Amino acid sequence: MNIHRQWTSNEMMNRAQIARMLALMRYDRETCETQKKSGDGLPEDIAGEEWYAKYAAVALNEGWMSLREDGKFHPGDTFTYGDLKYIMEQFHLSEDLLSFSLKYHQGDGMVPRTQWCEVYQLLSAESSRVQREKLSIHGTPSNISALGAWQTLTSRGLYSAEGLAMDIYMDYSLEVYTAGDEILCVAGKADDMCRIENVWIESGEGDEIQIFFDGYERSIKLEGKLNQKLEPNMADLTFTEGRLNGVDYKTSRLKAALTGIEERAAVLKDYGTVPISENLVVYQIYPSPKVISKDELATDGTVYEFVLKGNEICGIIYQDYAEETIRVLLHGTGQVYEQSSVTVTSSEPFLVMGNDEVKRYEAGTEVTFSQGESIFEGGGEVAIKAENERGKIQVLSLERSSGAPSYHGEIQIQEAAGGLLVINQVNMEDYVAGVIPGEMPVSYGQEALKVQAVCARTFGRRALGTTFRDYPANLDDTVSSQVYNNQEECEESIQAASETRGQVLQNPEGLTATYFFSTSCGHTSDAKDVWYSGSGTDDEKAVSVFLSDDSVTLNLMQEEDFRRFINMEDGADYFEQELPWFRWQVFVSAEDIRNSVLNVCQTDIGELTSVTVLERAESGLLKAIRLDGGLDTCTVYGEYKIRQIFSPVNAELIPQSGEAVTGWEMLPSAYCYMDAVVENNICEGVLIHGGGYGHGCGMSQNGAMKMAEMGKTYDEILKYFFPDSELITE
Asked: By the number of CB atoms within 10 A of the CB, which of 162, 328, 414, 418 ranks highest?
């Protein structure tokens, strides 16, 4: 009802609006402004800076309108039949041409807009400037902050609508009078429905959608709430009576190299010539959305995403930073990479490319490749990808925690001496989204997941340009690199990757070595200390920090201070101190230690007599120990070997939660101290008190989770773990 009242009140027009329509019927805005400056003085009720002053000056100078009896123009007064009769006389327009009669109306009666439009149609019939056309209104300064005063965004571009209240026509299809880029008057409603085609949906949640189109961002309020969060994508929006009632997502995409572009077609590698729709839009969506010309696209083989409507390209999506792809070697049964056969399928049509041929398979078709097939002759390679760019290829011959895994990007199969190698060439952001759930529980919260996303992306970026163990890939999908796609990507991991898109850590030496581990002891270590081997190392230096908001002054290289730290006698609070593996203890027998030394160091020390700490890192991490026995002495360097030497495989390992575990082949960490247990002058073994779980270098995943729970943001958390690094976007 309120909108109806607004429409009804807008049926009448004022004298300023009429003056504008008359002036722009013959002159453009700049000429009107010139006439205002060069003409006689304006009536006292028209200030020169008002929007209508120039138009009133033209209408008066041309004699098309007159002043009222008091010598004033009265720009805000309603346009009357007396005003209309005067104008018709000046233009020698006969009343006989009208569908209504003036003689039945009083001179001070208000003229409905529809009757004025009938007169204006006749007045402007010989004007080359005035057009009557159909367009939709989709933006004003009230919902697009980037628009200037009186600007209106329409289905035909940007117009000026000085003096007109366009907000009430939002998302309506209208019949309007225009002159150049000026909307002169709304003649009426054209249709009940209108559409905005090829908009970029930035986000949608709750009762609001954020969109980008024609170079502007706009928020659309909904009457109800969305059932689910909308992900960024291209779409067509449908409005009925000004209300959004349809979002038509454009999910059909393909990613390909652009090798040529024509007026109505694009030439794509592997796809040939593909027609372009008339309303093609090219979106740069990162780091911020903007519309670019198709002439700015590179035809040198640069890869873009092409959005399809039917068999035509209606949109091209472009990233402003180099959207790298990374090559991930996929492991088979028993961590073996070479496989005797590979079977693939997809839930949608997919393409198989090899031997200079492209074969298309329908959704659900299973295709098997075996070693020795002709397609691999001469070092040939098979490439498989979904026809829809966002589709996935499922590798049925592989088994993961979530079942047979599916992959974004392209699956490549190559023949090697021991079998077939399967490599996933995938966009870096899809790779990151696939790493997150394999390395961190998504229950840890969004800020912690974003920390993991930045670490995973930085790790992946460091691997680009390298090979993994001489295989034709940058890394693999196991703990040897980063666990990838063991658990399917999910909404949380996709969001974490999206919200940190392109972000990596960089220190003065280059990309940061973003190691990570499970749980800290309250302190982290340098990489050179973690991978210590008894001499200097070329490993890139990470950092060593206390994980506490308190000021801790302990010197953990000193045995006394380190014991106070592990025994939690220093009075400080640490982020992870309530977690089970923050502190733990275990008794390892002398016999088990002797056997471990024999296996690890190939030395039989005989009956154990003592264990001596030779060197601790700044973090308290054990770097070197000496074991003395009745037969020999053994010095052990490096936290990994030390954890093996004191293997608790036959012992009960007790975290601070009190629930003992057994069967562990290594100590949880090398942040520990040891006390020999001696009976009757015989060393029965050592009682070990320690903290943390993992090597302790870089980012503690549980630490990130606890810090996020405390309200710290992902960039603040990263600064704790990597204080010498800065967060940048590449």
From this structure: 328
What is d(CA 226, CA 208) in angstroms, rounded to the nearest whole number?
A: 8
8 has pLDDT over 60:
no
Strand order in the sheet with 682-690: 661-662, 652-655, 584-589, 682-690, 672-679
Neighbours of 698 (CB within 10 A): 23
Distance of alpha carbon 36 from alpha carbon 49, whole angstroms: 11
Distances (CA, A) of 144 to 201, 203, 233, 246: 15, 16, 20, 21
The residue whose two tokens read 């652009």 is 258
- pLDDT per residue over 691-726, tens digit each? 999 999 999 999 999 999 999 999 999 999 999 999
Q: Where in 161-271 does DSSP place strands (E)? A: 173-179, 182-191, 193-205, 208-213, 216-221, 233-240, 243-249, 253-261, 265-268
pLDDT the model gives residue 70: 93
- Residue 348 and residue 452 in contact, taking contact as beta carbons nearer than 8 Å: no
Rounded to 5, what percent of the chain is helix, strand, coil?
25, 35, 40
Q: How far apart are CA 414 and CA 380, in angstroms?
A: 7
Query: Looking at this protein, which amino acid is placed at residue 215?
Result: G
Answer whether residue 6 shows pLDDT above 70.
no
Which pLDDT does position 297 carry in this prediction?
87
**Burial (0-12, 13-18, 19+ Cβ within 10 Å), 5:** exposed
